[in-house]
Write a structure and sequence with these properties.
mainly beta; Immunoglobulin-like; four-stranded antiparallel sheet; 8 strands; globular; DUF6598 domain-containing protein; DUF6598
Length: about 130
């Protein structure tokens, strides 16, 4: 586990929803997040196997981690990758978001095979001091 202090940051709550199609058969999934200030530190949001995504009744993927901190001066990158157990990889996809002090941002142009995904970020300003 790695820890890094971020200054002037906001909280990003990440949601990923399947909007069309289905996850590619026989592919494992990896979902991660990173920031410009720490590009080599990827936060694992979900690793799933058996070509099945954990999806709730609303079509939202049940991420194992949903919240990350992002510096206001950088960008949040949410990466989605599918690969076969034998290593064959579909091209990794990425949604990039400029942080906000509040509100939401979304990107519905993520495609992995025939699966279309929408990534939504809910932004919250972290309080400092008493």
């Amino acid at each position: 586990m790695s820890v890094q202090e971020l200054f002037y940051s906001v909280e990003a709550t990440i949601s990923v929803e399947v909007t069309d199609g289905s996850w590619p058969d026989g592919f494992l999934g990896e979902f991660s997040a990173s920031t410009d200030s720490l590009p080599d530190m990827k936060v694992n949001l979900l690793k799933c196997g058996d070509d099945k995504l954990p999806i709730d009744d609303d079509g939202k993927i049940q991420l194992t981690r949903k919240v990350v901190s992002v510096e206001l001066e950088g960008f949040l990158r949410v990466s989605i990758m599918a690969h076969r157990v034998n290593g064959k990889r579909l091209k990794s996809r990425e949604a990039v978001f400029a942080p906000k002090r509040s509100g939401t941002s979304s990107n519905s142009k993520i495609r992995v095979g025939s699966c279309r995904l929408e990534v939504t970020i809910s932004w919250s300003l972290l309080a400092f001091g008493p």
